[in-house]
Amino acid sequence: MAERVRVRVRKKKKSKRRKILKRIVLLFALALLVVVGLGGYKLYKTISAADDSYDALSRGNKSNLRSEVVDMKKKPFSILFMGIEDYATKGQKGRSDSLIVVTLDPKNKTMKMLSIPRDTRVQLASDTTGSKTKINAAYSKGGKDETVETVENFLQIPIDKYVTVDFDGFKDVINEVGGIDVDVPFDFDEKSDVDESKRIYFKKGEMHLNGEEALAYARMRKQDKRGDFGRNDRQKQILNALIDRMSSASNIAKIDKIAEKASENVETNIRITEGLALQQIYSGFTSKKIDTLSITGSDLYLGPNNTYYFEPDATNLEKVRQTLQEHLDYTPDTSSTDTSGTGSSTYGTGTEESTTDGTTSGSSYSNDSSTSSNSTTNSTTDSSY
């Protein structure tokens, strides 16, 4: 832990210019743009200054669950996307408002996508007490390192790469590509992050959204009967729409401008050479080829504050784990102890949680009373589970 603190201190001392340069290996230039046809020269021009200044994890390049560093050009690998919400804390101690795991197989050119509900009840990687809290508490506690390791424990797969993006970068990129088209599932409204007195209204059916509208569309969950699951599906809808939008000729031509817009708001540990290689492998890939998975489970209210948690279904979670493991061609070490806090032997008891609210997640993670209270909540995605 001390080593991690030293790394952060060194990063704070870097100049603003160096921060910008090291963040140019972007979420959209690597996870999204690897799946569309980009000219190699244009991509190189966009990220050429970032190769020696990307944001490494404290663990180094290799996941602790792997025996060696994965070759992204030849073998399946995973990326964890973290959407960081810090507008509620004015830029301090942000939370991972959205967590999306993507696995890619360069040989077969396949991709799987999984959203993890932010209220999912897990044991954090650094916790030694056995208590559980919401998975989005990991980022506020230990940043990207804690989040990556917690997700590894939860899904029992190695997380090879990560990308963090805050919502300013999200809006800038949406605007730069000319907005996105979505299919709104029902009428609702949401306040703007720019002006709290302003409401943004969405009507059922096809709509074209700018950055401000897209963020409101992605954030809303109080009016969604499916709660966090409905919001997760809308976030994936935006990601898919952005992938398709980025593949247009006009946006390919200005990828350097798009990168500039997002550069101050994205961090990743993907190198230039890796991004260029993936661009060639996934050229022509579209969102229609993405296999979307989902986690099902039940609502759970615990502790003196009646705090809401999402409790994953053990059978479904195991199926999701196996699907991702197979796609990664990864076999977990069964001799190791399950530290995810979601093993079948401890599932659904709800008895060890009563003191977790104040010690791990705190009031920042208190119950949203408008979240769906169905005993079983299913996410309707492309996958059968």
TrEMBL record:
Compositionally skewed regions (Low complexity) per UniProt: 333-385
One of the GO biological process terms: cell wall organization
Pfam families the record matches: LytR_cpsA_psr
Gene3D superfamilies: LCP protein (3.40.630.190)
UniProt keyword annotations, A-Z: Membrane, Signal-anchor, Transmembrane, Transmembrane helix
Occurrences of domain Cell envelope-related transcriptional attenuator (ranges): 95-247
Coiled-coil regions listed: none
Keyword Transmembrane assigned: yes
Family designation: Belongs to the LytR/CpsA/Psr (LCP) family.
Protein name according to UniProt: YvhJ
Species, as recorded: Bacillus inaquosorum KCTC 13429
